[in-house]
Design goal:
By secondary structure, the protein is mainly alpha-helical. It is built from 12 helices and 3 strands; from the N terminus they run H-E-H-H-H-H-H-H-H-H-E-H-H-H-E. The chain starts with a helix and ends in a 5-residue tail after the last strand. A 3-stranded antiparallel sheet has the order 2-1-3. Helix content is 70%, strand content 3%.
């Protein structure tokens, strides 16, 4: 009851965690607003053709939305743990925030399983399309065509920017899942002691670099480190997803359809994923099989 690390942890959570993680999310939103002000909405340069091409199957869209919606619920309910007391309590009072936080906490715990399932299915479906290759170097060298209004570097099903999102979501999502699991079933794991021991084999003293006490850690220290890690990784992923949601909605004309109806305009596809369009077309003897013809207005 008198172990002083509990107090250190409380001060850390209410100080740097709260402030820096909050600034990181605000800074991301400001940068996206600046990008939008400077670049504007990325338009389909040649206008909509009125011809649709199938981009994602029902299973691909279901796994995306399972992962996306559960992540949004996890994000809101998780942020309430860190920011509820300082930001929401003054607005709604403790009689409302208390029970609401209880429900959000339960939602957080159960929704985690839906997120893990969506993440696993999306990984299986998309990993082959996200292996880095030479087209990515060209795409990156041209800044993805994001900065110039006229040139769109060729790309396969996913361009280099999307591969960054994919691997970011997979690695950060896995780390959130593992650390979340250890928080859900506390005092049974020694993730930090074990990981730091692995690093020490190759001569890297992670605890020293991070200014932490030397490993191995007690069960309570493991929980505290895990909780801090879970929060930091969650906010890194939230910032990444802010950018993803921006480009998938208001940031780029025609992009949302890919995950909405599953079909995109042929001109959008040619501008953003030209190699993929050629592949899809060449797989079909009759282009009408690939492109779902719809009369141009
Ligand atoms: C309202 C929220 C969201 C919207 C509107 C949205 C929209 C989209 C769209 C339109 C695509 C397909 C892009 C294309 O055709 O090339 C996509 C892909 C993808 N989304 Fe989302 N998304 C949302 C949330 C999320 C979340 C929360 C996650 C992960 C936790 C996520 C992970 C992915 C991944 C991994 C891909 C494939 C790679 C990529 O295209 O970047 N999305 N999303």
């Amino acid at each position: 009851m008198i172990q002083s690390q509990g107090e250190d942890w409380r001060l850390y959570r209410q100080g740097p965690t709260h402030d820096y993680l909050g600034y990181a999310m605000l800074a991301t939103l400001v940068l996206l607003a600046l990008f939008m002000a400077i670049r504007g909405r990325i338009k389909v340069e040649h206008g909509m053709s009125g011809i649709k091409i199938k981009r994602f199957s029902t299973l691909e869209r279901m796994s995306h939305w399972l992962m996306a919606l559960s992540f949004i619920i996890l994000g809101i309910s998780g942020l309430n743990v860190t920011f509820g007391r300082s930001l929401i309590l003054p607005l709604v009072g403790k009689d409302f925030l208390g029970p609401m936080s209880g429900y959000l906490k339960a939602a957080h715990n159960y929704t985690a399983f839906a997120f893990m399932l969506g993440l696993a299915i999306a990984f299986v479906l998309w990993v082959v399309h996200n292996i880095p290759d030479r087209t990515d170097l060209n795409w990156l060298a041209k800044g993805g065509g994001l900065l110039s209004k006229s040139s769109h570097p060729p790309a396969k099903k996913f361009n280099a920017g999307q591969k960054v999102i994919f691997w970011g979501v997979m690695v950060l999502g896995l780390s959130l899942s593992v650390s979340g699991w250890a928080l859900l079933f506390p005092f049974e794991h020694s993730l930090f002691s074990d990981t730091f021991a692995l690093f020490s084999y190759v001569g890297i003293d992670v605890a020293h670099i991070l200014g932490l006490p030397e490993a191995p850690y007690s069960a309570i220290q493991e929980q505290q480190l895990n909780s801090a890690w879970h929060g930091i990784i969650a906010v890194v992923m939230i910032c990444l997803i802010f950018a993803h949601i921006y480009i998938g909605t208001i940031g780029m004309e025609g992009a949302f359809d890919a995950m909405g109806s599953g079909e995109v305009d042929l001109n959008w596809a040619r501008e953003h994923h030209s190699i993929w369009v050629d592949e899809v077309m060449s797989e079909k003897t009759d282009p009408a099989d690939a492109a779902v013809a719809a009369p141009a207005e």
